[in-house]
Design goal:
SDR_fam; 46% helix; oxidoreductase; oxidoreductase activity; 8 strands; eight-stranded mixed β-sheet; 11 helices; alpha/beta; single chain
């Protein structure tokens, strides 16, 4: 009863509300997309997972700047709804939907083939789509579904579109990772669903670490091409990425998130910053925090020898035999 009395006390309620307000005001970084005057007319951008959450707001921003935007989505129904919304809000009719299931390497290849046949340029690629909390599932390629969706699918997509991006340079690749990559581990047997702990976000954390490692190695390989590659942390964001967790976890996350976490629109800012800001032109192989500041990633993500090995293994796993 003592704790109940404390929690119900007006002073406690007022201080909690004040703290929540302060945190909400501090969630925004110093860079404001709406204050950025960069236009993208004549530019083509691809955003994966653009039907909801962070991805939709990234695509919305690009469309407002006049870009030709390709929404790369798995669900046709949800992708079509996002397409309609973005066109209506921006007045940009040059926004299009292309279906892709990043957990399927064949689907990624089919998407890339169609894209390369119909598009003449690609200036921005945002690898945003991701899942968290999936139970153990194996794809027909023999890969863990979380690793396929979060890392190997985007890795293959980037590889297949790379030559076009080089011809379109200057161009930018942005991979949405997470601060959780610092809790990740590297074990290459994980790709095949072996030695994985599926509790909570442990698999997700591992995939996000591979995102940063391979993005850094890709940036090294792209030196001198005019194509940059960076990874970003969007912040702790209330999105549908939690949909595979238990109801209790989702409710708790949503309740706390209402007061303290970023909205999808706020979570999109660091990715937009990397993709369009004049300040980030030419910057490559870096990791941006959710406030758009440059920060060091985890020590494993800075291991050059590990990066080469990781990249080469991913190349072999995604190559068509």
């Amino acid at each position: 009863m003592i704790w109940f009395d404390i929690l119900c006390h007006p002073v406690w309620a007022a201080s909690t509300a004040l703290l929540a307000l302060v945190v909400r005001l501090q969630r925004r970084g110093s860079w404001d997309p709406q204050a950025c005057t960069v236009q993208l007319k004549g530019k083509t951008a691809v955003v994966t997972g653009a039907n909801t959450g962070i991805g939709k707001f990234i695509a919305l921003d690009f469309a407002r700047r006049g870009a030709r935007v390709i929404l790369a989505c798995r669900s046709e129904a949800r992708g079509t709804a996002a397409l309609k919304e973005i066109r209506e809000k921006t007045g940009n009719s040059d926004v299009h939907l292309r279906l892709v299931d990043l957990s399927s390497l064949d689907s990624v290849r089919e998407f890339a083939k169609g894209f390369l046949e119909e598009e003449k340029a690609l200036h921005i690629l945002v690898n945003n789509a991701g899942v968290s909390g999936l139970p153990r599932q194996m794809t027909k390629d023999g890969l863990d579904a979380s690793f396929a969706t979060n890392h190997l699918g985007p890795f293959l997509l980037t590889s297949l579109l790379l030559d076009l991006m080089k011809r379109s340079a200057p161009s930018r690749i942005v991979t949405v990772s997470s601060v959780n990559h610092k809790k990740g581990e590297v074990d290459f047997s994980h790709f095949h669903g072996e030695n994985l702990n599926y509790f909570m976000d442990k698999v997700y954390n591992n995939t996000k670490l591979h995102n940063v490692i391979c993005t850094n190695e890709l940036a090294r390989r792209l030196q001198g091409t005019g194509v940059t590659a960076n990874s970003v942390h969007p912040g702790i964001v209330t999105t549908e990425v939690m949909r595979h967790y238990s109801l209790i976890v989702r409710c708790l996350f949503s309740f706390i998130g209402f007061f303290f976490f970023k909205s999808p629109e706020e979570g999109a800012v660091s990715s937009i910053y990397c993709a369009v800001a004049e300040e980030t032109e030419g910057i490559t192989g870096k990791y941006f925090d959710s406030d758009c500041s440059l920060v060091l990633p985890a020590p494993l993500a800075r291991d050059a020898a590990l990066a080469v090995k990781d990249f080469e293994i991913c190349e072999r796993l995604t190559s068509k035999l």
